[in-house]
Amino acid sequence: MVPMSVRQDHSTAASSSFTILGTTHAVLLAFVAMLASEGCVKAQSITDTEASLTQNVYQLIVGLNGPDMAEPDRERLRSLQQAD
């Protein structure tokens, strides 16, 4: 059987090692969460910009589709609208 003093020494050493390991794990996990959050914010910004530009194009097409537009241009715009 292992003497109590040896077990206490090993317990102290293991405790220190697990504390360091746990702290390192927590820091790395926080770093990964921060990177994921930044990626989501960037993706949301890109999506908002794309939606805004798509709305602008749609409004321009609707505005150009008036009675003064030449028939070939009107047909070309209709084909572009339906191509999505």
Q: Can you tell me about this structure?
A:
The structure is a single chain. The protein is mainly α and 84 residues long. The chain has one domain (4-82). The chain contains 2 helices and no strands. The protein has helices spanning 4-64, 71-82. The protein is rod-shaped. The mean pLDDT is 84.
Layout: helices, strands, pairs:
Elements lengths: L3 H61 L6 H12 L2
Brief account:
The chain is rod-shaped. It has 84 residues and is mainly alpha-helical.
The total count of strands amounts to 0
Work out the helix count: 2
Name the shape in a single word.
rod-shaped
Distance between the termini: 77 Å
Strand and helix order:
HH
Arithmetic mean pLDDT: 84
Radius of gyration: 32 Å
What is the total domain count?
1
Instruction: Classify the helix fraction into a percent range.
Output: over 70%
Helix vs. strand class: mainly alpha
Low-confidence stretches: none
In percent terms, what proportion of residues is strand?
under 5%
Q: What key attributes describe this structure?
A:
single chain; 84 residues; mainly alpha; 2 helices; 0% strand
